Amino acid sequence: MLGAFILWFGWFGFNPGSTLSAHELRISVIAVNTNLCAAAAAMTAMLITWKKFGKADVVMTVNGAIAGLVAITAPCAWVARGQQL
Predict the structure, then answer these.
(1) CA 14 from centre of chain
(2) Is residue 67 domain-resident?
(3) Domain hosting residue 48, numbered range
(4) Could you tell me if residue 57 is inside a domain?
(5) CA 71 to CA 74: how far, in whole Å?
(6) C-alpha span between 80 and 34 (Å, rounded)
(7) How would you class 32 by CB atoms within 10 Å of its CB: exposed for 0-12, middle for 13-18, buried for 19 or more?
(8) 78 φ, ψ to 5°?
(9) Residue 47 placed within a domain
(10) What is the C-alpha to C-alpha distance for residues 21 and 35, in angstroms, rounded to an integer?
(11) Tally of CA atoms within 13 A in the half-sphere of 85 that contains its CB
(12) pTM for this predicted structure
């Protein structure tokens, strides 16, 4: 858990810090997208594990959060939230 927390926290230095320069307003979108994706992936992994095994598994929840962080790294500045096509 501690390692996952350190990775999650450190991802905010990598994604918003290296994607665009800090003077653009997209840095806030990048930070929010990074956090939302990791949280959604953790919740999804927890719910799937809970349904399959009858209890929540901490290790799978942490793995889901890390998978969410990896998945959002490339498109973090361009993922739109709340917009309908």
Answers:
(1) 12
(2) yes
(3) 28-73
(4) yes
(5) 7
(6) 12
(7) middle
(8) -120, 5
(9) yes
(10) 19
(11) 1
(12) 0.84
The domain total for the chain is 1
For 22-70, what is each residue's pLDDT tens digit? Answer: 666 778 888 888 999 999 999 999 999 999 999 999 999 999 999 999 9
Q: Is residue 65, in this structure, part of any structural domain at all?
A: yes
Which DSSP state fits 52?
H
Q: 77: buried, middle or exposed (CB in 10 Å: 19+, 13-18, 0-12)?
A: middle
Reported residue count of the chain is 85
Residue 79: C-alpha distances to residues 43, 46, 51 (Å): 19, 24, 29
Provide the terminal-to-terminal Cα distance of the chain, rounded to the nearest Å: 38
Distance CA 36, CA 83 (A): 15
CA atoms within 13 A on the CB side of 30: 21
